[in-house]
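#structure-requests
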Amino acid sequence: MLVLAKSSEHFNERAIHCFVGEFWSLPLLAALLGLPAHGHAWGRFTLTTMISGYPYFHPIVGAWISENSFSVKKRALTAATYNVIVQIGSVIGSQIYRQDDSPYYYRGNKVCISICAFALIVLVAQRQWLALMNKRKERQWDRMPVEERTVYQADVQAREKDGNARLEFRFKY
């Protein structure tokens, strides 16, 4: 977790580092799903241990949300919203592995594979969306004359009101 967080900060890249955690789990879950119903206890144990030890990216997402929230008020609101979503996900996640699917949980593992695949798509889409928003802002900013940029940046009230919608604000991704 620490190496992943440090690397994320060093390369100034959040989405790809979150992608690593999901990408780590996906082939392991697929391999677990592919094991036959009986035997292979050590293989199952190894895969389960490796899945449990995936690179945890929750701190990166928390920091990412914080970086992309301009004001303290928005930061507090988005962090609280993210934490609620994580808790709701935990409640839902507790229903994935059910007694009627034991002992190998093939249905539960398929659900986890689906969630991982969806998360990978969402991370890529989020990264592309933020990059597109930055490019749009960059184009608008480049079209402004230097004097207009100076006046725009000096307007403190507008800066506080507009927040991360400001042209000089760039989203991290």
